[in-house]
Amino acid sequence: MTSRWRKPILAVASFASVTALSACTSFSYTPTPLPPEASAPQPTSSASTSKPSKCANPLASYEPTGLLPTPATLPNGSTMAKIQKRGRLVAGVSADTYLLGSRNPFTGEIEGFDIDMVREVAEAIFGNENRYQLKVITAAQRIPALEKGDVDIVARNMTINCDRWKQIAFSTEYYRSGQKILVREGSKANSLNDLEGQKVCAPRGTSSMDNLIKEAPKAIAVPADNHTGCLALFQQGQVAAITGDDTVLAGLAAQDPYAVVPKQKAFTDEPYGLGFNERDVDFVRFVNARLDEMRASGEWTRIYNRWLRDALGPAPDPPRAVYGRT
Amino acid sequence: MSQASHHGGATGVAAPPIAAAPSATAPPITPPATTPARPIPAKPSPASSAQAAKARSTPQRLRLLSLSVVVVGVVVALLGALTFSYLAFSLSRAQADTAQLIRVQKIQSNLLTADATATNAFLVGGLEPPAQREVYDQALSGISLLIVEAAEAQPADAAALAALNQQVTSYAATIEQARANNRQGLPVGAQYLRNASAELRSTALPILDNLVSANAGRATDQMDVRAGYLLPAISLLALAGVIIGQVWLARRFRRRINVGMLVSAVLLLVITAGGFIAVQQLSSSLSSISNGSYAAVNAAADARIDANNAKSNESLTLIARGSGQAFEDAWKSSADSVTSNLGRLSERPELTTQWQAYTDVHNEIRELDDDGRWDRAVAKATGSGRESSNTVFNTFDQNLASYLDEQSQNASSSLANEQPAMVVGAILVLLGGLAAALLGRWGVAARLKEYR
User: Fold this and answer.
1) Which of A47, A131, A261, A270 is deepest in the core (most CB within 10 A)?
2) Is the pLDDT of residue B5 over 50?
3) ipTM topping 0.85
4) Confidence of residue B11 (pLDDT cuts 50, 70, 90)
5) B-contacting residues of A 218-257, CB under 8 Å?
6) Contact B322 A25 (CB under 8 A)
């Protein structure tokens, strides 16, 4: 009996053991897998799908009352007096929009056209243009920062429009920008229509991207996180053109001798205003008075020349102040 | 076997039903032409017909028993040698896999060290400090060496390492572009730096994650030695067989003990028990390695990788200057992971203290930056004073790195230490199994002699 069973058991057992051992001892591993290739980013338009609301005249701001008060004669209890008491003006700005507001890597200072506007306001409140503190904010943070009172003023290439008037207040227009294109030197394109079938970059989720998709549906829209990101793609030959506000494009062109903004008509109007908390009407009137002075004295033109003339050509007339908001 | 059946055929005139097994393989009708006729054993004197049938079949059974004992002993010997060699082999692979795991973790932490250094130097301005440049260069050249070493060590990783190499080259090129622009004071330099860092995280780190998890999985698989229990299981069956044979012998020959069979059974018992204990011992010391130095290596490596990732995000937050919330969020999640990994290194509480010191400095930097005192935040982040982020972080990083080295060596030598015992085990079981076979045969031969 035993001898009869011992053999099959042995045969099965040794077969099983050899199989099991050889399975465990496979001599090579399966290759380490590679992560799947990231798919190319799709252009996305800005999140707001609602139609822009209409209002009588978005450019109309609060009219100054009388002459600009001096730092010594600020009305008691006014927003300006409170800022003066604190000792510094807090402004929300950009730090990577070359020529408007960007950090100078050599000095560490943030400087540009927008920053000079902040300096003018500080000068009006303190008699000292250096009494300001900058908070660098993203485009999306502009309105919340004002609503929460984190900043007194926003000077960050911000377009005045009816939607935004519902949440914040604006100064009179201090710069008239418009959307244009930037191309490689030697390119014959001077409008969006000339860029059919070519790759054009705009920042993700901005009105610049919306306009690009709307105005030039045959161009291939390529998104980047911001305009400087577009410049990097442009320098790497991944896009043929960049579209954005002419001021921003000027800042990009200034960083690359082979990037040019050809002579062209802007295909949108982007009136820039300084942003305020909607309750600080006295402050808006005060700043508007200062802007009027700057327009009249030639200070506006001097600031324009300092930052933008080399890139955008001789100074136009300063944008006209429009009042009538009550 | 063939001898037994031939013999059975030659002598098996009218094979009795009991001897069915051998006669089945060799028909009794086979003419004994080639086989020399043998005299029928004369010893069993009571020659009644029934007893004769029994007597004739007994030598066959004895021969079969002898053969079976030999087969069983040889199988156990070979299987035992095979099992222990397999365990030794498995251990050496676990050691190699652990070494490879440590290598790819080192690549990852070097890469993040390079990134943390590059981003930090960027904050200083156009002219980066030579000391930081050197750290960056060293980290990158370390990566090149490690990639080559790793590709040689594990062919299964070669494709992933080749892809990684491409990403590292592209990263280094983008960093150089960032440097060139930054020296000219152009903001696009910061963009190139962000691109390089983002690309590093989106393409190179996932490859490294795969490498880490693949090698960790391999090492863990190799440390699973349960297959080794096959030896005691088989040896136990063999023992049962020998005992049955022994019992049969005892009954058939009325001798209580057959010394050969007994010693053979004892040897098999020793192999069974010894094999079981050896595998169990190995299994428990492997689990103490995998919960001890191996776990420490993984926790420390993860902590170091995440810490450098956090450091790099600290600089990126400052570079983005207000637009850097995403980087600060990334800092927080890396920092949480560092804290939880350090929690596993209970034997080194000072690492947690040092990490805490760095997070304090980081929080101060965030406070300064959020208060608009960016210049002071940057000074704290880039300076080299005692309270600066760099100094405090480096203290932590250096200590963690040396602890990691120590534990890597521990893990490797613990795995190496188990291997000689496996080789000795293989030899002992081989000898023991063969001895069991020979002794069993000798024991049965003594009974078989009685029929000659």
Assistant:
1) A270
2) no
3) no
4) very low
5) 225-226, 228-229, 231-232, 235, 251-252, 255-256
6) no
Q: Note the pLDDT of residue B385.
A: 86
Residue B315 located in a structural domain = yes
- The domain of B177 spans 71-240+274-436
* pLDDT, tens only, B127-139: 778 888 899 999 9
- Using the beta-carbon criterion (under 8 Å), do B230 and A17 form an inter-chain contact? yes
Could you tell me which residue, B36 or B452, shows the higher pLDDT? B452
Q: Which residues of chain A have a CB within 8 Å of the CB of B157?
A: 31-32
Q: How many Å apart are CA B139 and CA B148, to the nearest integer? A: 15
pTM for the complete prediction?
0.75
For residue B296, give both structure tokens: 């420490």
CB A145 within 8 A of CB A83: no
Residue B32: its pLDDT value, please? 41
B381, pLDDT greater than 60: yes
Residue of A105, A232, A252 lying closest to B125 (CB–CB): A105
What does the alpha-carbon distance between residue A319 and residue A117 come to, in Å, rounded to a whole number? 14
Q: Is B448 on the interface with A (CB under 8 A)?
A: no
Torsion-angle region of B46 (φ positive above 0: left; ψ -120 to 50: alpha; else: beta): beta
Chain B touched by A35 (CB under 8 Å): yes
A56 touches B: beta carbon within 8 Å: no
Does the residue B38 lie in any domain?
A: no
Cα separation, B172 vs B174, whole angstroms:
6
Contact residues, chain A, for B71 at CB < 8 Å: 10
Number of domains chain B is built from: 1
**Whole-angstrom Cα distance, residue A234 to residue A184?**
8
Bin B394: left if φ > 0, else alpha if -120 < ψ < 50, else beta.
alpha
In this structure, is residue B247 part of a structural domain? no
**Dist CA A181 CA A234 (whole Å):** 12
Within-domain flag for B18? no
pLDDT single digits (tens) B293-333: 999 999 999 999 999 999 999 998 888 776 678 899 999 99
Q: At what angle do helices A79-86 and A113-126 cross, to 10 degrees?
A: 90
Residues of B in Cβ contact (< 8 Å) with A134: 372, 374
Provide the residue type at A233 as one letter. L
Q: Which of B68, B83, B188 sits opposite A6 (nearest CB)?
A: B68
In angstroms, rounded to a whole number, what is the distance separating the alpha carbons of residues B308 and B110?
Answer: 9
CB A110 within 8 A of CB A134: yes
Question: pLDDT, tens digit, for every residue of B234-275?
Answer: 999 999 998 998 888 888 887 778 888 899 999 999 999 999
Confirm or reject contact between A39 and chain B (CB < 8 A). no
Q: Is B227 on the interface with A (CB under 8 A)?
A: yes
| CB-CB under 8 Å, B157 with A31 | yes
- Check if B409 contacts A (Cβ < 8 Å): no
Q: Which domains does chain A have, with CATH numbers?
A: 61-177+271-321 (3.40.190.10), 179-260 (3.40.190.10)
A104 contacts in B (CB within 8 Å)? 185
B180-210 residue pLDDT tens:
888 888 888 888 998 999 999 999 999 999 9
The beta-carbon neighbor of B244 closest among A2, A105, A226 is: A2
Q: What is the DSSP string of B25-70?
A: HS-TTS-TTSSPP-PPP-------HHHHHHHHHHHHHHHHHHHHHH
What is the CA angle A10-A16-A20, rounded to 5? 145
Of B82, B195, B230, the CB nearest to A232: B195
pLDDT beneath 50: ranges in chain A: 1-3, 24-25, 45-50
Q: How far is A227 from chain B (nearest CA, A)?
A: 9
What is the C-alpha separation between A286 and A199, in angstroms, rounded?
A: 45
List of chain B residues whose C-beta atoms are within 8 Å of the C-beta of residue A133: 372
d(CA B344, nearest CA chain A) in Å: 28
